[in-house]
């Protein structure tokens, strides 16, 4: 294997945050965009979780969790002091705590709000309210700082903004208003309006065995 390989799905927030880390860390990889409703056999054979993203390292080692891919990207980056910049030791516990809050509490309510028809016992309004409660807690942090833990982003910001973006998209599709207050709205805008966003969300053709290789970033 000549390149590290990322199996991805363009709109998946877990895959988005992994790709964002790769972009910031300036890691170039082969990317394989897959259809989650028709997962290729090669992907299924390599993944225990059967979910994206997964990273196949050059030595064939498999990394299955998006957060682990982020930490791998930090460790592989040639940019000076990048790990200290985005995962400072003095904020490590706080960073992991807020990521855990996103990946468990917020994601739980986001799914049941956005995809309420998939959950027979789901109360859409209840889960919307619970998601808003989490966002309000985050808003308190962002009212004091540009990012969660100061004037510079950490992997907490990288890990969470794709999910807040998904929440925004769900609210827009339901014609809801006033779902994001200015601090967190401005914070989300800083990522969506970043010049790297176009590369992040580039639309690759679906991967198939023996097809032409695609690389990330695309330019």
TrEMBL record:
UniProt entry keywords in alphabetical sequence: Transferase
InterPro entries found in the cross-reference section: Glutathione-S-Trfase_C_sf, Glutathione_S-Trfase_N, GST_Omega/HSP26, Thioredoxin-like_sf
GO term, biological process aspect, one: glutathione metabolic process
Domain GST N-terminal: 2-81
PROSITE patterns attached to this UniProt entry: GST_NTER (PS50404)
GO cellular component: cytoplasm
Pfam families xref list: GST_C_2, GST_N_3
GO molecular function, one term: glutathione dehydrogenase (ascorbate) activity
PANTHER family assigned: GLUTATHIONE S-TRANSFERASE OMEGA, PTHR43968
Protein name: Glutathione S-transferase domain protein
């Amino acid at each position: 294997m000549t390149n590290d390989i990322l199996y991805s799905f363009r709109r998946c927030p877990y895959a988005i945050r992994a790709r964002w880390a790769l972009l910031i860390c300036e890691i170039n990889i082969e990317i394989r965009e897959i259809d989650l409703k028709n997962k290729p056999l090669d992907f299924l054979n390599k993944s225990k979780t059967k979910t994206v993203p997964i990273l196949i390292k050059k030595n064939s080692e498999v990394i299955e969790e998006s957060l682990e891919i982020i930490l791998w990207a930090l460790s592989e980056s040639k940019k000076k002091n990048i790990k200290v910049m985005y995962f400072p030791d003095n904020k490590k516990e706080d960073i992991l705590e807020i990521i855990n809050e996103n990946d468990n509490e917020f994601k739980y309510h986001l799914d049941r709000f956005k995809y309420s028809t998939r959950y027979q016992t789901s109360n859409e309004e209840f889960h919307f309210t619970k998601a808003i409660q989490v966002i309000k807690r985050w808003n308190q942090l962002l009212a004091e700082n540009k990012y969660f833990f100061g004037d510079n982003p950490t992997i907490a910001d990288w890990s969470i903004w794709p999910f807040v973006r998904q929440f925004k998209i769900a609210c827009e599709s339901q014609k809801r208003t006033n779902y994001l207050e200015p601090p967190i709205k401005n914070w989300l805008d800083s990522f969506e309006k970043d010049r790297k966003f176009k590369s992040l969300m580039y639309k690759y053709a679906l991967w198939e065995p023996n097809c032409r290789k695609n690389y990330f970033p695309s330019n």
